[in-house]
Amino acid sequence: GTFFFRFRNGESGADVYDRASTFLESLFRELDSTDAAQNIVIVSHGLFIRLFLMRYFRWSVEKFESLRNISNCGMVQMELQDDCSYELVTGLETRAHSQISRGECGPESADESPDESPDEDG
Known about the structure:
Number of helices: 4
Helix content: 25-40%
Mean pLDDT: 79
Strand content: under 5%
Number of strands: 2
Low-confidence stretches: 98-122
């Protein structure tokens, strides 16, 4: 799936998940300090945010792959609950099955790109 796919000279989602885990551990140490900030803003790209949420909420790979990245300049909000846990209060859009396994069960044939529009001549 997309979680394990690594682009040439790039990272896989699993690699970014490891970085998100390291970041989360650092964040927890910071939050444990007595002078920790009340509000924290994390600015990053959509894949990292989705993997950060996957790590924090312990989502499965299947759940991760069923969700879309947030849109450009989008926002995800987590709120502290009375039991000291965090709840995701902004939802993430889900992907249609045809978008997850493009070409296998979607309306496009295997040799057509979903971004291509048909010729005006038909």
